[in-house]
Structures are given as C-alpha cells and as structure tokens.
Specification:
seven-stranded mixed sheet, globular
C-alpha cells in the first residue's frame, strides 16, 4: 500500500527553468560536456533504480529490521542485493572527480539522486548517505597516501564509511568525548574507547567499513580544540580484523532498516586525517555535506507523503463535497480530493515538496558554482550563500518532512494509523532527521548567532538581494505582480527585524538563543516565497498547453495566500523572545 515514482517532470523544471543549470554548466570547464538531455537520462535511471529496487523494500525492511548475532549485523532481505545493483550502476561515483575515478557530475545531480533514495527507502539510504561527505573530507584533508589508498574504494562503492562522533556522555557537545588515540612508532595510532549511534557501524553490504573517528591524543587541549580525526578501517590491508567491533544495535522508533550501532575500539589501528587537534575542521567538511543530505531526507519524506496521500484521496469516497470540478455530475459520495479541508492539506503537501526541491537543488547548485565557477567573485558569493542555506535546509526541511507526513496521515484517516497503509512509517522515519547531524536547535543557533549576527548580516544580505532581484523581474508580468509586491514587503520587514535582533542581542546575550528557532523558521518560509515567486515567473516559458504552467501559478497563489501569512506570527515570536524564560 506504499509506492514511489520519481518526480522527474518537476526535477526537469527546476534544473532547466528555475536554476537554468545547463547555462551554468556550459560556463564551467568541469561540466562542459554535460547538457540537459544527459542530465535527465541520469535522473531517469536513478528514478528507475529507486522505484523498482528500493521502494519495494521499504516496508519489508521496516518490519524485518536489522539483526545482531555473534558480533555481526544482518540487514533486511534484499538490502545487500540492492546495494550491489547501486554499485554496478556507478552511483557512488556520480559526483566524484574524474581524476580520482569518479564520473565528475555536479553535486546538483547528486542532490536529486539523494532525494530519490531517501524518498523511496530512508533506512537503506542511511548506508550510502555519508559516503560523499567522507570522500570530500579525505580529498580535502587526508595525506596523499591515505587518499590514494582509501578514496578509490569509497568512489567505487567497495567500502562504505561511517562518521563516529557520539559517545554516551558526548552528544552535541563533542568537546566532552573521551575516545583516545595513542601515537605508534610507524606513524599510525591506536584508538581506545566507544562510540554509539553510529549509522552503518556494521553491515553486510561491504566487506570493509571505513570509520572516521573523532578522538583525543594524550596531552591535547581540553574541549573541542583538542580533538583529532582518524581513519580506522574495519579490516586492515593484510585481511586481519582491526580492533573495532560492534557490541549492540539500537531498537528504534523508525529507520529500522538502518543498523544504528554501538562500537568499541580496543587498540584499533588508525591514521590521522589532517592536523592533530584540528579534527573538527576536517569533520565539518563531512558534516556540512551530511546536513544538506539530511535536509533532502525531509524533502524526500514530504514528496513520498504527498504522492501516497494524493493517490489515496483520489480513490477514497466520503460524503458529498460542497462543490465539484466543472462538468462532474453529482454523486452519493465524492473523492476526498473534492473536499476543501483535504484540498487544503494536499495543496500544502505539493507546495512544500516542490518549493523545497527548488531550494534544496539551489543549495547544491551553489556548491558546484563555488567550486567550479569561472569568476572569483561569483565563487565567493555562491560559497557564502550555500553556507547560510545549510542550517536552514537541514532544520526547516526536516521539520517540514515530519509535519507534512503528519498532515498526509490525516488524509488517510484511521487507515493512516495502521501498518497496512505505510504512511505511519514515513511519519516515524522522518522524526529522526530533526535530531541527528546536529539537532534543529543547534542549526538555529548556528544560523542566527554565527551566520547572521556573526558575519554582520553579509550572507543574509545576499539572500535579500535574491528576493529583491526576483521581485524586480516578477513585477514585469501581470500574473506575478502581486507576488513581487509581497516579496518587496517581505524584504523590508526582514531588514527591519534584523536591526531589532541586533539591538536586542547587544542588550541581552541570551536573547538570540531564545529567538533562534523562530528566526530559522522565518528564513525557511522566506526561501519558499523566493521559490514560488520564481517558479511562477519562469513557468511562463512553458507552452500554454502544458498543464505544469497553470499548476505552478496555482501553487504560487496558494503559497502566498495560505502559507506566507505565517511570516507575521514568526516575526512576532522573534520579537516576543525578548521576554526572559524562567528556569524550570
């Protein structure tokens, strides 16, 4: 009772019209041979893999879960076979450099791939989701010999990596970690300690696993300034098992197909990545990639919830609706799609899914521009915007993933609460994304304190420039003029609010921490405003006969009428946070 089909038509709309990505590819030597037809072929094949191989394993993987016996993890039936097909299709190499054996395609296409994987089977995709971040981490910080030895098996899919940060006493505050690394005469280190909540810490998809582990070298400074990063393989080149073992897996509320492991390091051999005591800087390359991917999980959940809720609402007939579409004869009972309350829910699902897709793909496109853009100023601007977008995408998208899954469950009524209709799994799976890879509260603090107040509002100002530019272009077209007026009003309100936030932060150091959550949500709504104003404008290039043209304008009208008004309440909440919070 659960299905998924990749939204290839809307993906094409975002790539071709919203982003105008093919024009940018032509300007970048790294992507000069890539054009839209080739990109669409890649996405079509990714969609086929996701819908044909992964989606059928989603519910069964949830019911079976992972098994742990004799120190080994067994993944649900079909997971290992699907991974072999994933490797044979060359998907691990998609956005890796050609010089290292990758396909050299943009991170934009990889973002679309990740959306499809998470939408079709979140539990399975947890094993592959961290691989690109590990690739970037090693490529940026590891010694040359480590890159030569361990990048090829990551790119080929022969090995899967993990990210080992959390310890029982050190979750979000990694400065409290106790795992230690002792230098050896041969230049390696021996690691001792334990880690928990390690996704894919053990699995039966690959023979070897590459653990990227944060640990402390004896004598290092206390806190986060004394943390180093190490690469610790499960198996050494000799074939001998390294001193790392899984001693338990967690029994979770969701993503049951993903093995969440406790690992014990008992003199495990590893090698330093980057400089000693600067492990967080190296790890953040991996974590920033992971945070974008986690945001895409929220998008994937919203898309899957939308597809399945719409399919059910079209089939389920209940009562007579107040109105029917033109030309539809009266009946004893009408589909749920005719009832205003359900139309309201379904439109919000569609608008959030398609709006987040535009913004999520924009962030990935900015990463490509930051690395491969032809002009230094444009590369710097793209980098600033992508850094500002990252915490918003991680937190806002994942909150929407859970919120919209809950809305979709409501469409199913009582059936949504039983396992035969797997929307309840989507609700359970989506909840974890608000916690891991830096909780949403941490993302909000990072956004307001570091990326807005901390940089004197420069990156935030770039976003306001995007809003103003869109308003200037939209005002030229009658059907977009109202959206343009609302964008200009939003810009003025955001600028005024930022001035107030700065003043209040100077008067009360705790104030920005109290206001951060609402400020981030406000930024998310503002990004959706940009998404839909632009979507309405660029949809004008589509033929009048194309239903997508009218649909985009309809969706933009819904957003600006029904969802944008939430901006006022969030602004009021940001201002209201000047009131101190009592200790409880």
């Amino acid at each position: 009772m659960w299905s998924y089909q990749a939204p290839l038509r809307d993906m094409q709309f975002v790539l071709e019209h919203w982003l105008q990505a093919p024009a940018a590819w032509r300007q970048a030597p790294a992507f000069a041979e890539l054009d839209l037809p080739l990109a669409l072929q890649v996405l079509e094949q990714a969609g086929r893999f996701s819908s044909a191989l992964l989606a059928p394993l989603n519910s069964s993987g949830d019911r079976q879960g992972c098994r742990f016996a004799d120190g080994r993890v067994t993944t649900p039936e079909g997971f290992a076979q699907a991974y072999r097909a994933y490797v044979e299709g060359g998907w691990p190499a998609l956005a890796c450099a050609e010089s290292l054996g990758g396909q050299g395609l943009p991170q934009l296409l990889d973002a679309a791939l990740q959306e499809m994987l998470y939408a079709s089977n979140h539990g399975w995709a947890m094993y592959t989701g961290i691989a690109h971040g590990a690739y970037l981490c090693l490529k940026t910080h590891a010694a040359q010999w480590l890159q030569q030895r361990y990048l090829p098996p990551i790119i080929s899919g022969e090995c899967l990596p993990t990210m080992c940060l959390t310890e029982p006493q050190a979750g979000s505050d990694v400065g409290l970690l106790r795992c230690r690394a002792e230098a050896q005469a041969d230049g390696s280190y021996q690691l001792h300690g334990s880690k928990l909540f390690i996704s894919g810490g053990d699995q039966d998809l690959t023979e070897n696993i590459l653990h990227l582990v944060l640990a402390r070298i004896p004598g290092a400074p206390s806190g986060s300034r004394g943390i180093s990063l190490f690469l610790v393989p499960k198996r050494l080149d000799s074939g001998q098992a390294n001193g790392v073992r899984c001693d338990a897996i967690e029994h979770k509320m969701g993503i049951n197909g993903s093995a969440t492991c406790s690992l014990v390091f008992e003199g495990a051999k590893g090698w330093l990545i980057g400089e000693a005591n600067r492990g967080l800087a190296a790890m953040f390359v991996m974590m920033n990639s992971a945070r974008l991917h986690v945001g895409l999980q929220g998008l994937g959940h919203t898309e899957a919830a939308w597809q399945n809720a719409l399919a059910y609402a079209r089939e389920r007939k209940q009562m007579r609706a107040p109105q029917r579409p033109p030309g539809v004869a009266a009946a004893e009972a009408d589909p749920l799609t005719y009832h205003p309350a359900m139309r309201r829910v379904l439109l919000e699902l569609r608008v959030c899914s398609e709006g987040m897709r535009a913004i999520g793909y924009w962030a990935a496109h900015l990463l490509d521009q930051a690395e491969h853009g032809s002009e230094e100023a444009a590369r710097q601007r793209a980098g600033q915007l992508s850094e500002w977008l990252t915490p918003v995408i991680k937190a806002f998208f994942t909150e929407q993933g859970f919120r919209q899954a809950s809305h979709a469950l409501q469409v199913f009524g009582g059936y949504g609460y039983v396992r035969e209709f797997a929307i309840e799994q989507t609700l359970r799976d989506s909840r974890i994304a608000m916690i891991y890879e830096g909780s949403n509260e941490i993302q909000a603090n990072d956004l307001l304190l570091r990326k807005v107040l901390g940089d004197q509002g420069r990156a935030f100002g770039l976003f306001l420039e995007e809003l103003r530019e869109e308003a200037e272009q939209g005002v030229q077209w009658p059907e977009c003029q109202l959206f343009a007026v609302q964008l200009n009003s939003l810009c003025a309100a955001l600028e005024a609010l930022l001035g107030e936030v700065r003043q209040l932060a100077q008067e009360d150091p705790e104030y920005p921490y109290r206001a951060a959550g609402d400020f981030l949500y406000l930024c998310g709504l503002s990004l959706l405003a940009l998404a839909w104003a632009r979507a309405a404008r660029v949809s004008r290039v589509l033929p009048q006969s194309d239903p997508l043209r009218a649909q985009k304008l309809q969706s933009a009208q819904f957003f600006f009428s029904y969802l944008l008004p939430q901006v006022e309440s969030r602004m009021a909440a940001v201002r209201g946070a000047r009131a101190p919070l009592a200790f409880v």
